[in-house]
Amino acid sequence: MTKFIKAAATATISAVALLGSLAVTSPVMAEEKKELSRVEQGRQLAWDRSMGNCLACHAMAGGELAGTIGPPLIAMKARFPDRDALYRIIYDIYDRTPNSIMPRFGYYGVLTEEQIDLIVDYLYTL
């Protein structure tokens, strides 16, 4: 009977310890899995020097080491009330301005259509 009680006590202690550790790590795990908002994903793409790299040519609120080749990205929703027009500019600027030095992000597959959509979501907050 003593072996049974020791085994039961050990199992209970182990279960309590396991549940306690889950309670402690659960919020951390949830935070790690927390998905970024579409706007934050778009900001990350726009600022990423190996992806959108908008900061290479454009000034944006909060951006560091911004370029001055392109216009500042401000009041984007007012400047581009037609969201699709802004999307098309990022996708392939040559449709609007054939001599532009802006990369043809979608046309050449630098960014996916979804990534461009995310960037537009972000730009509409500026």
What is this structure's SSE topology?
Elements: H1 2-33, H2 38-47, H3 76-79, H4 83-91, H5 113-123
Helix pairs in contact: 2-5, 4-5
Summarize this structure briefly:
The protein is mostly helical. The chain has five helices and no strands.
Could you explain the architecture of this structure?
By secondary structure, the protein is mainly alpha-helical. It has 2 domains: 1-34; 35-123, Orthogonal Bundle (Cytochrome Bc1 Complex, Chain D, domain 2). 52% of the residues lie in helices and 0% in strands. Helix 2 (38-47) crosses helix 5 (113-123) and helix 4 (83-91) packs across helix 5 (113-123). The radius of gyration is 25 Å and the shape is globular. The model is unreliable at 7-33 (pLDDT under 50).
